[in-house]
Design brief:
With 327 residues, the protein is α/β, with parallel strands linked by helices. 37% of the residues lie in helices and 22% in strands. α7 (205-212) crosses α8.
Length: 327
């Protein structure tokens, strides 16, 4: 665990993956088909993680491709607004477009529509990842969507190899999105390969179950990865909390109950809170609970990146909350 924690403690992360636009009807509770006023914000799992880290006092640089148009420039401007290093967020022309997520600020009958046709971020190539000086960073983070199509898939695996060559630990958020993949079989094979190369793996019960060939096998899959290749594996179970595997330890943690406004953004905020907590020297269980608190703050407000807490917001939340559920 020493090398992984030493890297994370630098609190300076290179993050690979998509940046896009989120679009949601206002006021909260409005159905998309009945919306008249829509709000926009930064979107994309990797972009959200990068923004969340910066809001909590860390440093992050994003590596991806965006469309060479106003929407791509919007994504870059938003990243810069949150303090993310955008030197390696490169535009690509032609018919490639940024991803767009249209979702609602409501829990009951929540609707999300994702537009990923001709996605610009899937055009990230090996030259793009070779342009990064990985030695500048403490750890590499990526979400599984980068592996869903070529040339992004090969480029991301190449980035793993380059990072490992300079001793950079790899943090992998499984982030399985079926609509991005050509088939479940390819996804299972590729995501399992990425998991086997990673030092820290974070996913929910369904994602580990998918990698294992059945949701009932997911917990054993997480335990096996921690025993064989990964230093830390976090198995998230939604309202039931999380089980974290580290060596012979199985750490069970609860959640911070809130009145949720929407389900989106929780995983990205969890990751940002977890890694910045570890960077601050927290014990693993305390850092996981910090990630859970960040997730709770995020689901209680509209948007994803805008809803993620900064340090003061997180401190105020923890000071006013009775505490996590017992497990």
């Amino acid at each position: 665990m020493t090398d992984l924690l030493d890297g994370i403690k630098q609190n300076n992360f290179v993050i690979i993956g998509r940046a896009g636009m989120d679009f949601f009807p206002d006021p909260p509770g409005t159905k998309t088909e009945e919306g008249e006023v829509f709000r926009a914000s930064l979107g994309g799992s990797s972009a959200n993680i990068a923004a969340g880290i910066c809001k909590l006092g860390g440093k992050s640089a994003l590596l991806t491709r965006v469309s060479d148009d106003s929407i791509g420039r919007y994504a870059v401007n938003q990243l810069s607004h949150y303090g993310v290093d955008v030197a390696n967020v490169m535009p690509i022309g032609g018919e490639f477009r940024n991803s767009l997520a249209v979702y609602e600020s409501r829990i009951e009958d929540h609707q999300s529509v994702i537009y990923r046709n001709g996605a610009a971020d899937f055009q990230m190539n090996k030259s793009d990842v070779e342009a990064i000086d990985y030695g500048r960073f403490g750890a590499l983070i990526t979400a599984g969507t980068v592996f869903a199509a070529e040339p992004s898939r090969s480029a991301a695996f190449h980035a793993f190899e380059l990072a490992k060559a300079v001793g950079l630990p790899i943090i992998f958020d499984i982030d399985y999105r079926p609509y991005s993949w050509p088939s479940p079989q390819i996804a299972e094979e590729v995501l399992s390969k990425a998991g086997a190369m990673s030092d820290m793996i974070v996913g929910n019960d369904e994602e580990f179950g998918f990698m294992a060939g059945g949701i009932d096998k997911g917990l054993d899959k997480a335990r096996e990865l921690a025993r064989t290749t990964a230093t830390i594996v976090v198995y998230k179970m939604g309202p039931e909390g999380a089980i974290t595997f580290h060596g012979d330890q199985e750490i069970r943690t609860g959640i911070y109950p809130v009145e949720a406004l929407k389900p989106t953004g929780a995983g990205d905020s969890f990751m940002a809170g977890l890694v910045t907590g570890l960077a601050a020297g927290m014990d693993l269980d305390a850092a996981i609970l910090r990630g859970s608190a960040c997730a709770s703050v995020t689901v209680s407000k509209p948007g994803c990146a805008p809803a993620m807490p900064d340090t003061k917001t997180l401190q105020d939340f923890l000071a006013g909350h009775p505490g996590p559920t017992k497990v």
